[in-house]
Write a structure and sequence with these properties.
With 137 residues, the protein is of the alpha+beta class.
């Protein structure tokens, strides 16, 4: 038996009909994603055009996470506590290999990063740690 490495065409994978309900809206620059009423992550891109190009891949990655659960339900979320967790996280900053500064954030409940250039956020992403997406809220 032999194994071969094949390149998977992810662009066609992320264009299946399951993603149609999640089209970006005008001027959208980010997304807060919840699975089963629990926040899974937050992603922000400073330019609308850049976000629009990344939207299907971002949504697709969370859709894959949701498919790992036996049941996916809907529930109300409270984003305030997630934002507060981000604001209270420990931050470490490093010069970026390219332009700007890399910021890394950690707490007991979240992890994340941001790239800033000239004091403006270019891209940021935050994920819940130990996210039990089997709960509904």
């Amino acid at each position: 038996m032999s194994f071969t490495s094949e390149k998977i065409n992810t662009s066609s994978f992320f264009n299946v009909k399951h993603y149609n309900p999640f089209k970006p809206v005008k001027d959208q620059k980010g997304v807060l994603v919840a699975i089963n009423g629990t926040i899974a992550g937050l992603e922000f891109v400073s330019r609308t055009e850049a976000y629009r190009r990344l939207h299907d891949r971002i949504i697709g990655s969370y859709a894959i996470e949701a498919m790992l659960h036996e049941r996916v339900g809907y529930g109300a979320i409270e984003p305030g506590s997630f934002i507060e967790e981000i604001m209270g996280a420990d931050e470490k900053s490093y010069p970026s290999p390219g332009y700007g500064t890399d910021h890394r954030y950690t707490s007991d409940h979240i992890t994340g990063s941001a790239l800033t250039y000239r004091s403006e956020v270019v891209h940021s992403v935050f994920f819940s740690l130990g996210n039990d997406c089997s709960k509904t809220g």
